[in-house]
């Protein structure tokens, strides 16, 4: 196949034991088709492909005539990294192999991963425009400190892994008014909802400490981010660079979790809704429109600011909460965001742009190369 644009884009994804040996096949198929329409060579590869490489390039997969074809391909000029690594060992392996690839063929990294939730929080806290919208956050430092937090924050706190995804291993902890009993609602490592109740504060705090183990966790006040029916909800905004290399707001959607489900993440059984009508329904017209306006303002500010801290980025998933008083909170920033919300709310323009933009931005970078 002859491609009009010189240079190739490699989509790096995790290995898989499914029908295909790589993850996110449906998303990758769409990326490859968009690349073909734009006259670009877009293919899929996994980390082992790097060490298998030789003078012919590296093995990868292209979507041709309706099927995936494994073939030798030129080393990528741009890497679109969709490969999530959750542990230190995986991160070191990835860094080593990508360095090995760069030694043989220098490439542009389309979007780097952010350095974890704690580092992002510390960076955002230094920005005067953004700090007022951040919930107070600290590193979990053991049962004694957790007990102090419970006393200082209306006897309710929220705990989450520093490097967690999809709401897994999150905990809501409530100390009874008596100051002795502890109730817990949480999600397991497999994202299953569970509840625990302890008659003594000591037993509850020890159980939480054991649940956390050696994993780094963050602790925050428990924010009342529920709708009138008591269901948790948040607002996902997808920010991406476009064909001109400029940040643009691709889409905005509300994600609602089942009652008592702790998180609104779609992986935890949530549903998606169009943002403005939902927030007007929950908060009233004035407060709903104000919340959307604030979220838009923050969404345009956050990516540009984080680039000054961490270097070039290409897309970010921003999660916001809105409490019953209409106060907007910045909850999370994701450097490898999903797109499911925009397909579920029936927003075809945002859904299409969410997949087109990474390839359009990659094309912009290739055309900008000296």
Brief descriptors of the model:
alpha+beta; single chain; D-amino Acid Aminotransferase, Chain A, domain 1; Rossmann fold; 370 residues; six-stranded antiparallel beta sheet; five-stranded antiparallel beta sheet; YheC/YheD family protein; YheC/D; globular; 3 domains
**CATH class (first level) name of the largest domain:** Alpha Beta
**On the 0-100 scale, what is the average pLDDT?**
92
Q: What series of H and E elements makes up the topology?
A: EHEHEEEHEHEHEEEEHEEEEHHEEHH
Number of strands: 17
Distance linking N and C termini? 25 Å
Please tell me the CATH architecture of the largest domain by its name.
Answer: 2-Layer Sandwich
Task: Going across the biggest sheet, name each strand in turn.
Answer: 7-12-8-9-10-11
Strand-residue proportion: 25-35%
CATH topology of the largest domain: D-amino Acid Aminotransferase, Chain A, domain 1
Structural class: alpha+beta
Quaternary arrangement of the chains shown? single chain
- Low-pLDDT runs of 5+ residues are none
Q: How many helix segments?
A: 10
Biggest sheet overview: 6 strands, antiparallel
- Helix percent reads 25-40%
């Amino acid at each position: 196949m002859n491609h009009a644009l010189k240079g190739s884009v490699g989509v790096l994804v995790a290995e898989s034991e499914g029908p295909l040996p790589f993850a996110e096949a449906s998303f990758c198929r769409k990326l490859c088709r968009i690349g073909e329409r734009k006259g670009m060579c877009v293919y899929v590869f996994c980390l082992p492909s790097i060490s298998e490489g030789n003078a012919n390039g590296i093995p990868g997969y292209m979507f041709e005539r309706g099927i995936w074809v494994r073939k030798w391909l030129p080393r990528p000029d741009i890497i679109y990294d969709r490969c999530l690594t959750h542990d230190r060992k995986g991160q070191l392996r990835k860094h080593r192999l990508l360095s090995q690839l760069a030694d043989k063929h220098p490439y542009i990294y389309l979007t780097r991963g952010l350095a974890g939730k704690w580092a992002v929080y510390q960076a955002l806290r230094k920005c005067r425009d953004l700090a007022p919208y951040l919930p107070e956050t600290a590193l979990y430092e053991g049962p004694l400190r957790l007990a102090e937090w419970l006393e200082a924050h209306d006897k309710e706190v929220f705990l989450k892994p520093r490097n967690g995804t999809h709401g897994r291993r999150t905990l809501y902890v409530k100390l009874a008014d008596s100051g002795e009993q502890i109730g817990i609602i949480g999600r397991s490592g497999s994202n299953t909802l569970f509840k625990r109740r302890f008659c003594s504060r000591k037993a509850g705090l020890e159980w939480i400490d054991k649940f956390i183990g050696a994993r780094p966790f963050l602790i925050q006040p428990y924010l009342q981010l529920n709708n009138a029916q008591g269901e948790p909800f948040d607002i996902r905004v997808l920010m991406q660079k476009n064909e001109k290399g400029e940040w643009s707001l691709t889409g905005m959607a509300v994600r609602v979790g089942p009652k008592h489900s702790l998180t609104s993440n779609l992986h935890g059984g949530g549903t998606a809704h169009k943002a403005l009508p939902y927030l007007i329904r929950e908060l009233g017209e004035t407060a709903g429109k104000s919340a959307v306006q604030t979220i838009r303002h923050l969404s345009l500010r956050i990516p540009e600011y984080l680039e000054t801290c961490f270097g070039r980025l290409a897309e970010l998933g921003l999660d916001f909460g809105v409490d019953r008083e209409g106060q907007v909170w910045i909850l999370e920033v994701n450097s490898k965001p999903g797109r499911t919300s925009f397909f579920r709310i029936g927003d075809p323009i945002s859904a299409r742009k969410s997949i087109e933009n990474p390839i359009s931005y990659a094309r912009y970078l290739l055309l900008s190369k000296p």
